[in-house]
């Protein structure tokens, strides 16, 4: 019972991060599970299966708070499911260590771009619920993101959320909600692929999976509510910081950088991130950006105004 409570709390924490930032459930949950004494392989297998429940709850919650563009969900999620199944069944037994530093460097670059873009200037006003992304672009991104997520043990959120945010064509809350909803398709497909590959061993992690799923379902509505209330500048800065810190850790571990230099690196990243969060908070209070040639939208007239 004690272990189940611990895994449930891990699920709550991981889902709050994932639901609010559109990424990092797998990274957060796996890290917390390993810290609590769970073997790395068990943690990874349990997280994939638990995401079936947590992503469903997260998608429903984001739908309730109108954070979803269903065109993005379908055009991104269906190819993502295909890529996840292929990655789980074909590459689950292959080593991805050589590809890890390359992917980390790419995601780190995207994270830096997103971090600076949303913290140093006011993001363009974008109408939530619409998308200018083409079907080919979303399908390619989904296929690649799903493949990386299943074969590399995670990465759907960092790949898809970072890329969509960096393009600046869709409101951050819509990107996060749509990516979270489409991840349900990826999680189901990846779980089926791992079920085919691991068979009976896959179900050895049911207690861990159950705790993660329960905690994630509990936290999903709160996370969706938070993303509907936080400003685009703060959301983008938060996402960028998570991507930078996560992938910097991967590169530090890969190149064998140890203390005190690793501590210095993490300290510099955290301090810079905190500084940019302060800038993003100031941007939030600034007037909304209006493209040249367009007038600001008129203030809506309320019944109380007419009464005067």
TrEMBL record:
Transmembrane regions listed in the UniProt entry: 72-93, 99-116, 137-156, 176-196, 208-227, 264-283
InterPro entries linked: TM_pro_TauE-like, TSUP/Inactive_protease-like
GO CC annotation: plasma membrane
Keyword Cell membrane among UniProt keywords: yes
Topological relation to the membrane, as annotated: Multi-pass membrane protein
Species, as recorded: Mycolicibacterium arabiense
Name by which UniProt lists this protein: Probable membrane transporter protein
Family stated for the protein in its record: Belongs to the 4-toluene sulfonate uptake permease (TSUP) (TC 2.A.102) family.
Location within or outside the cell: Cell membrane; Membrane
Keywords, ordered alphabetically: Cell membrane, Membrane, Transmembrane, Transmembrane helix
């Amino acid at each position: 019972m004690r272990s189940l409570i611990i895994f449930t709390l891990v699920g709550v924490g991981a889902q709050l991060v994932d639901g609010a930032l559109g990424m990092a459930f797998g990274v957060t949950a796996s890290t917390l599970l390993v810290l609590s004494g769970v073997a790395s392989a068990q943690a990874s297998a349990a997280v994939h299966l638990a995401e079936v429940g947590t992503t469903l709850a997260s998608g429903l919650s984001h739908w309730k708070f109108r954070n979803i563009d269903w065109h993005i969900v379908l055009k991104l999620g269906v190819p993502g499911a295909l890529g996840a199944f292929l990655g789980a069944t074909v590459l689950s037994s292959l080593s991805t260590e050589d590809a890890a530093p390359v992917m980390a460097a790419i995601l780190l670059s995207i994270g830096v771009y997103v971090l600076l873009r949303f913290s140093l200037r006011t993001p363009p006003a974008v109408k939530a619920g619409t998308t200018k992304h083409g079907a080919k672009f979303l399908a390619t991104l989904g296929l690649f993101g799903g493949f990386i997520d299943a074969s590399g043990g995670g990465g759907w959120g960092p790949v898809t959320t970072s890329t969509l945010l960096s393009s600046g064509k869709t409101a951050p809350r819509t990107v996060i909600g749509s990516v979270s909803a489409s991840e349900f398709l990826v999680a189901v497909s990846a779980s089926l692929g791992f079920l085919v590959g691991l068979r009976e061993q896959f179900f050895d992690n049911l207690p861990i999976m159950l705790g993660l799923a329960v905690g994630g379902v509990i936290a999903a509505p709160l996370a969706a509510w938070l993303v509907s209330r936080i400003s685009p500048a703060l959301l983008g800065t938060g996402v960028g910081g998570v991507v930078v810190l996560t992938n910097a850790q991967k590169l530090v571990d890969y190149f064998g950088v140890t203390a005190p230099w690793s501590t210095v690196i993490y300290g510099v990243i955290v301090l810079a991130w905190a500084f940019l969060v302060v800038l993003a908070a100031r941007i939030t209070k600034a007037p909304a950006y209006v493209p040249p040639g367009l007038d600001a939208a008129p203030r809506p007239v309320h019944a109380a105004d007419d009464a005067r």
